[in-house]
TrEMBL record:
InterPro entries: Ergot_Alk_Oxidoreductase (IPR051604), NAD(P)-bd_dom (IPR016040), NAD(P)-bd_dom_sf (IPR036291). It comes from Streptomyces griseicoloratus. Signal peptide: none annotated. Residues 8-132 form the NAD(P)-binding domain. This is NAD(P)H-binding protein. It holds the Pfam family NAD_binding_10.
Amino acid sequence: MTTILVTGGTGTLGRLVTERLRADGHEVRVLSRRSRPYAVDLREGGGALDAALDGVDTVVHCATSPRGGDERAATNLIAAALRAGVRHLVYISIVGVDRVPLGYYRSKLTVERLVEASGLGWTVLRATQFHDLAVRLLDALAKPPVMVLPAGVSDQPVEVAEVADRLAGLAVGEPAGRVPDLAGPEVRTLESLARAYLRATGRRRAVVSVPLAGKAYRGFRAGGHLAPARAVGKRTFEEYLAVRFGRGDGDGRRG
């Protein structure tokens, strides 16, 4: 069995990838800023990163931060992986990073290009947003008595466990380059997701959609972050809500 290092291995996705790989008998090292014995800040690199990569065959790069620093982290990781003789670098990206002009998406696209030019064997998977991220957004929007949504925007949330399964499979395979996107089973309006969330949580809110300004909003409204042709995910948003909140009504197709 191979030795695999998972960056961001204590996060929402990385933890599940680690569990899948260990269940299949692989030796997995978990790298994060606070996870011993491989506590490393990728933005700083250094000897601790070299030690974490010593003897590693494959890296699954899940570590990321919307607050910035992904490019520096990837640069340090790639340099250390080359020194260590890593065979395969697997990177998880986001559907639409090349179509929606959002700062975080641009950073993810830059990292994709760094991975592709690294000289390592590489695989890049793009996925749509996870169900739990949609819920975190809706949690925040539901705090006021009126839930204000950006008008005309849809989403295609996917189950994080399904993405983890796909990444784990890619990690034990050969470098495959850019693989087909992984998207959730349904393209849904934000309003329909918000109403499903309100039903599942038992909240009562007025829901209002308003147009916004800016290039990023126009990119989302145009559906740049969607992949309807790759709607291969299985778990729907309602099914996720039913498990998380225990109140889902199973009403499957809206908007």
